[in-house]
Amino acid sequence: MKVFTILVVLLFVTLTFGQEAGWTFEKVLFQYDLEVSNSYGMHGVAVDPDGNIWTGMYNWPTDSIVTDTDTTYIYGCRIFDSDGNELDMSPVNILTGAVTDTITSSCRGLATAHDGNILLSVAGKLYKINYQTGEGMAMYDYPEYTGSLTKAAVAEDGKIFIGTVGKGHPIKILNPDLTEIGNALEEYSGAYNRAVAVTSDGKDLYLGSTWVGIGIPHYHSDIPGVLPFAAVDTLGNAVIEGVYDTTMVVDCDTTINGSDTTITCDTTYTTSPHMEKFWAEDVTIGPDGNLYAADTQIDFGYTPYRGSRWWVFDLETGEELYSLGEPEGDPSSGGIWNGRGAAWSTDGTRMYLADFGYNNITVWKKATAIGDDQPHVLSTFELLQNYPNPFNPTTTIPYKLDKRAHVELTVYTTTGEKVVTLVNETKAAGTYEYKFDASSLASGMYIYNLKVDGKVRTKRMMLIK
């Protein structure tokens, strides 16, 4: 008897994209003129108290030292003002001061310390750099490890949390001067990891996961540095509505009677909902207290339904709030390939995202008007998700009215440019469906906006031709 098991993915796709987007794309702050590659890419972003944006590339040097026998490449930090102009002291290639060193290892993450200075993770080392002068202030050498470190995370009291990209090593807790306090976790072996995030009180720790992604593991300690962190739950993994995994089992019996051979096969099927595991390339807690996590690129083939965008989670409930970015879309209008860092302006109104594949830093602003979807406000109308989604070239947009009201249904680009007004009239209470024909539009993400008596609801839809 022989048994063959085959895993089949059935695709009945009814995807929905970010629905209550808290941010809208504004511009590209800076971009290297490079092709998308897994060999190099933007790998960090941080904002200092003066509002300047620090950036770092993986495996793409800012300078080199050439001798008769060798070439040493330097991987410094480049620094820009909020208009995208590079500062005079940029790039910071060589550290002087309390720490003297040449940065000869690629950036693996950037963060802002509680005093405003910059934390740069490289291979085996964490540097603290004076944001005003570019001088070295302190350096932590991870014990008995020369591989890449994660991006650091900073608690409100200044304590710093950092781990290794490779599996099987501790997550460390450091003082603000980078001296070691102890281990937050004795060992993290769940997955390779590029980033650490910590709540302001230092009690809740969130880790990334990639190769192979397992979601966003969450750990808690009542007294960090004294009591160990214990596993709580995992965020980000999601059952994809309308997509099913089917296991096919073929059971064959062979009967031999003289010179005759008979093979009889029975086939059984078991179908279950498809669970997509989150590959968190970056995790960062924003000034709003939400967790921002970048799911890995769709191009890898492991996250076809949720990859190549940022997802935002409410840490009080663990609820997924919305997503950001057009998956593998045009980088000049908010496309995301593979996020590797998030930072915010000092007033919290601008968000800066680092993208590995597109080699850029993009700027996002707090959403108003078309992005202002507030489900907690009692309303007399409801905007529903279009179907099918994605679509080509027609889709249906449903909405409901609890009372007679003036209705405006409008389609926008992700940058806020009006495409077309579909409805602009007074309607009676009831359920409505508008069939939208996008034959004349280019492929991409669009926003549709329902305005009723001055109140607005917004959702997104994806046109794929």
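Next protein, fold it too.
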Amino acid sequence: MSDHRINRRTVLKGVGTAIALPFLDAMIPSLVHAAPTKAAPVRVGFLYVPNGMHMADFTPATEGVLSQLPTTLEPLTQFREKLNVFTGLTLDKARANGDGPGDHARAMAAFLTGRQPRKTHGADIRAGQSADQWIATNLPDHTPFASLELGVERGQQAGNCDSGYSCAYSSNMSWRGEATPNAKETDPKQVFERLFGNADRKEATAARAKRDLYNQSVLDFVREDAQSLSKQLGASDVRKMDEYFTAVRELETRIQQAKIDATTRKPFKPDMPAPTSTSKDPKDQIRLMCDLMVLAWQGDMTRVVTLPFANDGSNRAYPTIGVSEGHHDLSHHGRDKAKQAKIAQINRFHVEQIAYLLSKLQSVKEGDHTLLDQVMIVFGSGIGDGDKHNHDDLPILVAGTGGGKLKAGRHMKFTKDTPLMNLYLSLFDRMGTPTNSFGDSTGRLPI
């Protein structure tokens, strides 16, 4: 290892470009010449799927050690020791509580807030600050981005989307304040530009135009800085830098190809069924966003990310896995076995994307550990069974061990009506942002 030490906040700069560095050995102070450094930071992600789950295929057969995963969770088998599956948790504020229909809007809006959204489709929307924003605004350390709000399916911020509830409720899971949802970014190219662009907007715009014109990478604009830094690093850090840059370059290429595919796709023939969405393949979209999430965490550009895989109530079809019917329509299966089987297919598809994300996190080294060891990823839905529209016994899992602060490899079942917000109280402690209550919490989970 080189004796040269660099600051954790060092970035490579070029015209219109700034690239944060991954965690390097050279960022660890020498045991001889400096005081011990802080541990690698803990990150948190909140990932959401709409319309509930086919719970029979999601729920482990026994409590305790996760010895065997049910069908829907099978893609996560290799990460079993890094998982917790929590059943029995409840989102009471997604229930009607006198407000009538609108379960999808309430499910998304209450998932991270634990607050009853005001039933309105006007400008007077009200929910509450979300768990991700509580963490983002109370973290003791500052990152270039307090949080990232990513998405896969575009949503509206106004209008009536669910039985008198504003589209803002079913489209947003992150809320800065009770009347201010954080709109998600669904264009991976825009996310990429946010992460790796310069703060000088005019300069960044010019650099982006030049890159597009000459088909250049953001890495081309920081090459001189990178070469200078590499001369000061040990072999291990040079390898980490190469891996990081390779990931950035590959992601750029995939984003550009996705744009090309979207503009050159042949139109549907008249005898083919019309798609329920004009968006690109959801698998590609989700994975691009997962890659961006990993890069953002790897460069410590943020500690907090939200990513709903679709808006709640989404009727998106999944033809690439053989499901041509809309997701929401299928969720109202009426116990029809064929429809339930297709819902289970969609559920498993979503879990496969979680497995992809965990694999990426596992591949990134941070000191003696991996990035997967340093995260806590909440994955679930604000609805239990889509046909029942119930908001108890929710499908919830947490991946990662939060820097060793969270025991894993368990299925824990909680008593009836245990608030989901109790889980967040426990995660807040591990993020260094504790509070005595949040939403409709009643106490911390014993995890």
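About the second fold: Residues 11-431 form a domain with the Alkaline Phosphatase, subunit A fold (CATH 3.40.720.10).
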